[in-house]
Amino acid sequence: MSLNHDINAIVEQINKLEQELKDLNLWGGEALRPSDKDLSSTSPFCLDTIEFHQWLEYVLIARFRSMIEADMALPQAMMTHTYAQEKYRGQWSNYRNLIGILQELDKLVTIA
User: Residues 35-45: pLDDT tens digits?
Assistant: First the structure.
């Protein structure tokens, strides 16, 4: 795993992200998990097959947790909050916390 990442801070931020999705009633759990085909889309954020909040839960959070558990190197750059800002344009009051959590996660992951 990269020595430049603060893994504890990243885990904490991932946990905050999960809680925020739950608070927004966007957490689906296994019962609402999209199909493997939908999750394997090659479009950014699987935007052609699933909703952004599903991508956060079933792709981003799941992959980060398994990468950390397996002691694998994490990405060295990430900009998910910019997509979230566009996705939730006009609804920022509802999604401000989510966007802030993603922005902090982006900062923790990105190594300059």
Answer: 999 998 888 88
Sort 6 into a burial class: Cβ within 10 Å, 0-12 / 13-18 / 19+: exposed
User: How far is the C-alpha of 35 from the C-alpha of 85, rounded, in Å?
Assistant: 26
Are 81 and 102 contacting, i.e. CB atoms less than 8 angstroms apart? yes
Residue matched to tokens 């947790």: 65
Cα(71)–Cα(1) distance, rounded to whole angstroms? Answer: 5
pTM > 0.70: yes
Q: How many CB atoms lie within 10 A of CB 21?
A: 19
